[in-house]
Amino acid sequence: MPLPKDQAWFPAKTYGWGWGIPSRWQGWVVFLGFIGAIAAGAPLAKQSPLIYVVYCCGLGAVLGAIAYWKGEKPRWSWGNRE
After folding, report:
1. What span, in angstroms and rounded, lies between the C-alpha atoms of 19 and 7?
2. Residue of 20, 37, 70, 79 with fewest CB within 10 Å of its CB?
3. Which ranges of 1-82 does DSSP label H, i.e. alpha helix?
4. Closest CA to 9 of 61, 56, 65, 57
């Protein structure tokens, strides 16, 4: 269940669907961990590009699940949220 706006780690985007950049330190830790995991898996790209793509898609799915769990409810938005 998504968190209320004042507690959300990832706010809903102003335009489009999904989440924007993190708004709390916990979100930044998750996001930087995601970037670090992608960088740590980079040697896989040399061995097998397909495995690296699957690895990155898995990381993206985990990031999306955390954003859904700890972020605002995702919705289509076209500007002013008030």
Report:
1. 14
2. 79
3. 25-40, 43-47, 49-70
4. 65
